[in-house]
TrEMBL record:
GO molecular function, one term: protein-arginine deiminase activity
Name the UniProt record assigns to this protein: Agmatine deiminase family protein
One record GO biological process: putrescine biosynthetic process
Pfam families given in the database record: PAD_porph
Taxonomy of the source species: Bacteria, Pseudomonadati, Bacteroidota, Bacteroidia, Marinilabiliales
Organism: Gaoshiqia sediminis
Gene3D superfamilies, sorted: L-arginine/glycine Amidinotransferase, Chain A (3.75.10.10)
Highest taxon of the lineage: Bacteria
Keywords carried by this UniProt record: Hydrolase
InterPro entries reported for this sequence: Peptidyl-Arg-deiminase_porph (IPR007466)
Amino acid sequence: MTKQVSYLPAEWAEQSGVQLTWPDEQTDWVTNLDEVIPVYVHMAREIMAREKLLLVCRDKSILPDFLQEEQENLIIREMPVNDTWARDHGPVTLLEEGEPVLLNFRFNGWGMKFAACDDNQITPNLYQAQAFRAGVPLRDYSYFTFEGGAVESNGQGCLLTTSECLLSKNRNEHLSKNEIEFFLKTCFQAEKVLWLDHGFLEGDDTDSHIDTLARFCSEDTIAYVKCTDPSDIHFGALQKMEAQLQQLTDQDGHPFKLVALPFPDSIVDEDGQRLPATYANFLIVNQAVLFPVYGVRQDEEAVRVVASLFPDREIVPINSVPLIKQHGSIHCVSMQFPAGVL
């Protein structure tokens, strides 16, 4: 297929950088700050070895020493933040005739579950602070509630999403499914929107963001979480999700190649509540995939599977147990920018 003039690029397209929003004592990380900071340090080092890091923080004096130094691959902007989920408060980037356009949506704490007044302003604040390359425009869609973790793009006109998220209350409930699909097609210049109606993760606050369940790994390949234990609470819903994935077709009417990711053993918090561990929540960067691992027996197989999907990229396992204690993982805390943005 000939690439569209305007489209939402796939994550594996060449990147200029990645945004992280740094945790501090005023975020929800306050209870496990000592264990989550090393995760952010690991991610920051891996990103900066390959591309630019746009680091948002409340006060740069709290950053580790290596992030205090002036570096070519480091951009720091200070501003108020509520929390650190850059996937959902960072800008989404569209390409129009090869040139990037930043999109600003309303972020309301996943349907007003959490305070988000400062996070909702991060994208316009970054733009005003000249964090992006001169001349890159910012298009305002702040009348529409949306998070970057809610859609996946194959870079060829297909968007993958979940009805549980985009049709949930306190987001855009005044709009019908058809109206939301029309908005997505118009906003992202998409040819086809693929809806998944099943699948969830216990402990997830996002109402089933697609990046916790199924991911495009190439224009014709989807990796998805598969539960094989009939006694697991997720088994039925994920079986239905798999069946629905098998019926989906791409922008040209062809079925997708489906690759199953293992389902990690149950991990619980100190109150016995299950945490949303998933191998789908990886981040693709230039020459690498930053991959969440959880210290369970499925880690090795999951790394092997994702390595087969990205044979030309280094797979970098990152301990993500601290991240899921606040109900997200690697993809949730990051937002990539295509070439030309930073």
